[in-house]
Structure formats: C-alpha cells, structure tokens
Design brief:
By secondary structure, this protein is of the alpha+beta class. Helix content is 40%, strand content 13%. It starts with 28 loop residues before the first strand and ends with a helix. The protein has a three-stranded antiparallel β-sheet, with no helix packed on it. It has a three-stranded antiparallel β-sheet with strand order 2-6-7. The protein has a three-stranded antiparallel β-sheet with strand order 3-5-4, with no helix packed on it.
C-alpha cells in the first residue's frame, strides 16, 4: 500500500516531481478518439459492409465471437491510426474507443491471433480479396460521386516493397536492385485511391501519385507486407488502401475552413490521436473530450454532418 492508502500499482515517477505517479491503468481513457470518426465515415458510405456479404462464414459457433465486418473494421481502423502490426490488436482490443467503433460496448475486440487468421485464412483467399476490392470500389464511388466530374486524370505508378526473408512470390527487381514486391497503384489527380496490389513487370512514369504513395508508406506503412503467403500480403495492402481512403474521405469532405490541404500524417496526429475519457452511465456512452481541444470543429463536421 502507498502512504495515502492507495493500492500499489506499476507506476512511473518523474524526477522533477516525485509526487506525480504515471501508470497505464486508465481503462476508460483512449488516445485514439479518431476510431469513432472512421466508423462514422465507414458506415455513412457503407464501405466495409459492402464486401462482407461476399464472404461465406464457415466458422464453428465457438469461433464467431467477432463478425467478419467487425474484424475487418478493427484491422483497417488500426492501420488508419498508425498501428500497422497485427500485434497491436492485443492492446487495442481493450481500447474503449475501438470497442465503441466496433459496437462491442463492454466486450473486447479481436486479438492478434484472430487478426492473423483474418489475413491468411479469410481475406488471403480469392473471395476475400474480391470482397476487399468491393470495399475499395465503394470508397472510391463515394469520393467520385461528390465531384460529379465527367473526366478524370488518372495517376498510375508502381513502388518498391522490400521482401522479408524467403517470402512467397518475391522476386529480384533490377531497377531497385533488391528482392521485393512491386505493387502498382492508381489515384486520381486529387489523390482519391482507385486501385492497389497487382504485381507488374514494367515501370510506369511518375506523376503526383508518387507523393501519395510516399505519404502512405511513411504514415500507414503500406510496405509492411511481412506475411509469408503472397495472397495474405495482397489482402494486407488492400486493407491499407482502405485505411487511406477513409482518412482521405475525412480530408476531402469534412476539413472545413482549412486554407491548406492537410496531409494524412496531420489527420492522424491531430484528429485521430485525440485523447478522451469514455464512461458508461444511465445506459449511455459518454465520450468526454478536453474543453481545450482546438480541433473540435472538425469532429463536429464529421459527426454532425447530415446527408
């Protein structure tokens, strides 16, 4: 016991003031309130749910604790918040904002082992990759419908994705001088993601798409394709592409009053990485944001916007 009667906990005490105790037991606190923004945008445009109907659930009843939609949402939202590793699920599954975004309430999300099976056994199949393509198409439709343009300028480019060890279908690329994967991406000139993860044998000329690819490799770690099986890596890349489009939808539609076009990194660090306290009271969930939070108008733009 501590001197004031509190139970002993693992804590950090800074030297400048030893009366301060810092611990990691704030189960009602999240550092990623942006999970709720992503769920709102996802559901508003029916993005992830659009492809889940294509997946046949052959799991036994004891393995259906999480729906396919919830697992894909959890994985994509994690990526969009900068958590590219499956291992992060073991911590984020208890995050209160993540649980609310998944409609889990008091229940935990999926663990790392479940996320790995999702990538390999469910999405790393022909049907799984087709379902992800449907989700990407739905997110693209939402972006293009808003513009209502008759003509589009497409940017197409490929990039080097370093291989890790003896991975399935890796090959030596003479241009990059290393063993790697070589995915190709297609964007509009406004940065709307249209397509990912085909392997190509030709090098395409570069336009603004190179900046979009660099942006996503640096923030969303699109090059973190460390699964052994090639189809699982393709599924992981497609989910990263979905994560980009969710953030890009926020950037295109809801950052009102902004003179400059914000980067994906800005959206993650300033909007997604927002600390809040979440409590359950009188059969309602209350998300308490700091009164000094200077970007609350962007949250109001997303959550208060009506079709």
């Amino acid at each position: 016991m501590l001197g004031n009667g509190e139970a002993q906990k693992e804590a950090i005490r800074p030297d400048f003031n030893r009366s301060i105790f810092i611990d990691f037991s704030g189960a009602k606190i999240t550092s990623d309130a942006g999970f709720l923004l992503m769920r709102e945008v996802d559901q508003r445009f029916g993005i992830i749910e659009s492809g889940c109907s294509q997946l046949v659930d052959n799991r036994s009843a004891s393995h259906k604790k999480h729906t396919f939609e919830q697992m894909i949402q959890q994985r994509v939202y994690q990526m969009a918040a900068g958590y590219e590793d499956c291992n992060d699920a073991d911590y984020l599954r208890i995050d209160p904002a993540m649980r609310l975004a998944l409609d889990k309430g008091q229940q935990y999300g999926a663990s790392q082992s479940v996320m790995s099976r999702l990538e390999n056994d469910i999405l790393g199949t022909t049907a799984g990759r087709q379902a992800l393509d449907t989700m990407i198409t739905r997110s693209t439709d939402a972006l293009l419908k808003k513009k209502n343009k008759k003509r589009l300028i497409l940017d197409v480019d490929s990039t080097e994705d370093p291989a890790h060890g003896n991975q399935d279908q890796m090959a030596y690329n003479g241009h990059f001088g290393k063993n790697c994967f070589h995915p190709i991406f297609c964007f509009t000139s406004d940065g709307d993601g249209l397509a990912a993860s085909k392997v190509v044998k030709v090098y395409n000329g570069r336009g603004d798409v190179e900046n979009r690819i660099k942006e996503c490799k640096n923030t969303l770690r699109w090059d973190k394709t460390s699964c052994h099986r090639f189809p699982a890596n393709e599924a992981r890349l497609k989910m990263g592409f979905l994560a980009y489009n969710l953030l890009h939808l926020i950037r295109r539609f809801y950052l009102w009053g902004e003179d400059a076009r914000r980067s994906i990194e800005w959206i993650i660090t300033r909007l997604v990485k927002a600390g809040v306290r979440i409590v359950y009271h009188a059969r309602r969930w209350h998300v308490h944001v700091a009164s000094a939070f200077p970007l609350g108008h962007h949250y109001r733009a997303v959550l208060g916007w009506q079709c």
